[in-house]
């Protein structure tokens, strides 16, 4: 009975070429790393003089070798690796992709040998077995330009310490991670019917510094999957849900990895440039971003003395900035949500609130107005002095009250009314007479006749004008002022 499908080896070879020769050699290394008990893998690659070919050998010492030698030439055969998330393979495609770009090849293992001859086709030699491990030998199409790509790819591998991998006789040294942690990530595991299903599983994740010339990438158990351009290489210690070409992942998966990395290694970020990198902002806007991580990012970007915008108290914002603080701005919606949840930034009005004695604040205490017949002589004198100055300096008939309230103000001016807060000023302040402190407070409050904003140009000009008028008043009417002095 004829087969349903045929495979065009030349067409498959063209698709394989798109992956690059480095990834193709990496497929063979990946298969060797997945074999139980492997401790050594030797890769040799030598260009054939005068021809666009190279002799490639990949040999390992796995005790069992290939479980089923037919998998070396059967596309999409059922792979035992599909049920094990700690093994890299699932498509059973790697060797076939390599064979598709070879002029000739052979695979020898503990189950026998199969030769791929350019004229005779596939030749199976079941009696020609190895005692241990497997060896792939092939003449692969390769140019001199391809050769460095393979070298760079193999040197980029994040290899386990318990497996010695050599390339042309030199060991590819394992790298030391700068942080390793556990997190729950999606993986793919075959169900009872052999169909790959997504499943969330705890994985070990390690991050590594990228070497000069390398682009930080996402790795699956030591093999690069896709360049990310993020801060570090990130190696996921379980099967990554890859596309069939094994060169990309879904954006949602990459986002989950980035959030996990940020939460585990935010303390390794030390500059505003790092904190504003694209991956960092994406992770910082995710609801899974930890409180500690978002606080660290905000301080890297804006400094230690920070406050949030406060439309209800714009004066507090100006005052905070005038004191060297920074108002946090330019965050994404997700970043703001995380900032608020973590309490990372308080509104400026909570840090340095502007006194609003008679605002609609439901938490404000009621004001107790002290009747004039209960005023001390000092209160009466300062009230009379305030009325006199208001009329002379501003041509205002001033109404003066003395109140007793826990609200946060010492005095309050508005629309020709001035209230002194006895609780904040104290009896001693009223009994001191007309001092510089009294003039200072009155000029400050009278400035609000022209502007309510302490930091506005109008308010600043009003204070200057009031001070100049008080000086002129002292020169022109010294006796009128002296009556209030005691």
Summarize the structure.
With 486 residues, the protein is of the alpha+beta class. It contains 17 helices and 19 strands.
Question: How would you sum up this structure, described in words?
Answer:
With 486 residues, the chain is α+β, with helices and mostly antiparallel strands. The chain folds into four domains: 9-171, 2-Layer Sandwich (Heat Shock Protein 90); 179-268, no CATH class; 289-351, no CATH class; 368-482, Zincin-like. It has 17 helices and 19 strands. The chain has helices at 9-19, 21-34, 94-99, 146-155, 251-265, 272-275, 278-284, 291-302, 314-322, 333-342, 348-351, 377-394, 422-425, 427-431, 436-446, 457-476, 478-482; strands at residues 40-47, 53-60, 102-109, 112-117, 121-125, 135-141, 164-167, 170-171, 179-190, 196-208, 217-220, 223-227, 233-236, 306-307, 326-327, 368-370, 399-404, 411-414, 417-421. The strands form four sheets. An eight-stranded mixed sheet has the order 5-4-3-6-2-1-7-8, with helices on one face. Strands 9-10-13-11-12 form a five-stranded mixed sheet, with helices on one face. Strand 9 (179-190) and strand 10 form a beta hairpin. Helix 2 (21-34) packs parallel to helix 4 (146-155), helix 8 (291-302) crosses helix 10 and helix 12 (377-394) crosses helix 16 (457-476).
């Amino acid at each position: 009975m004829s087969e349903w499908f045929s495979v065009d080896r030349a067409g498959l070879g063209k698709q394989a070429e798109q992956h690059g020769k480095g990834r193709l050699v990496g497929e063979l290394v990946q298969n060797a790393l997945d074999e139980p008990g492997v401790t050594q893998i030797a890769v040799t690659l030598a260009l054939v003089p005068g021809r666009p070919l190279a002799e490639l050998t990949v040999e390992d010492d796995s005790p069992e070798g290939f479980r089923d030698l037919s998998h070396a030439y059967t596309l999409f055969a059922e792979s035992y690796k599909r049920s094990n998330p700690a093994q890299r393979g699932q498509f059973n495609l790697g060797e076939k992709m390599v064979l598709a770009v070879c002029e000739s090849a052979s695979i020898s293992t503990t189950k026998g040998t199969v030769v791929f001859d350019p004229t005779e086709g596939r030749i199976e030699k079941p009696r020609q077995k190895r005692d241990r491990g497997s060896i792939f030998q092939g003449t692969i199409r390769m140019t001199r330009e391809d050769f460095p790509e393979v070298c760079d790819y193999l040197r980029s591998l994040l290899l386990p310490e318990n497996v010695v991998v050599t390339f042309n006789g030199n060991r590819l040294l394992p790298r030391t991670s700068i942080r390793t942690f556990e997190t729950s990530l999606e993986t793919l595991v075959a169900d009872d019917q052999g169909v790959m299903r997504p499943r969330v599983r705890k994985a070990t994740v390690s991050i590594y510094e990228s070497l000069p010339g390398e682009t930080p990438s996402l790795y699956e158990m030591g093999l690069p999957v896709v360049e990310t351009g993020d801060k570090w290489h990130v190696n996921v210690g379980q099967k990554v849900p890859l596309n069939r070409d094994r060169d990309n992942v879904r954006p949602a998966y990459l986002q989950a990895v980035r959030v996990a990395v940020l939460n585990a290694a935010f303390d390794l970020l030390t500059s505003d440039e790092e904190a504003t990198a694209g991956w960092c902002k994406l992770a910082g806007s995710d609801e899974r971003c930890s409180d500690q991580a978002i606080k660290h990012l905000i301080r890297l970007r804006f400094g230690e003395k920070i406050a949030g915008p406060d439309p209800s108290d714009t004066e507090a914002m100006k005052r905070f900035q005038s004191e060297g603080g920074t108002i946090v701005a330019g965050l994404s919606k997700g970043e703001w949500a995380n900032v608020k949840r973590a309490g990372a930034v308080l509104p400026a009005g909570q840090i340095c609130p502007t006194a609003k004695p008679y605002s609609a604040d439901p938490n404000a205490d009621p004001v107790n107005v002290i009747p004039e017949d209960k005023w001390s002589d000092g209160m009466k004198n300062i009230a009379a002095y305030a009325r006199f100055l208001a009329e002379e300096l501003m041509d205002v008939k001033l109404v003066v009250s003395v109140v007793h309230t826990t609200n946060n103000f010492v005095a309050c001016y508005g629309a020709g009314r001035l209230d002194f807060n006895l609780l904040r000023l104290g009896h001693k302040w009223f009994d001191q007479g007309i001092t510089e402190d009294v003039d200072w407070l009155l000029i400050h409050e009278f400035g609000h006749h022209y502007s309510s904003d302490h930091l506005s140009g109008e308010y600043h000009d009003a204070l200057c004008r009031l001070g100049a008028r008080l000086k002129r008043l002292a020169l022109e009417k010294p006796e009128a002022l002296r009556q209030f002095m005691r």
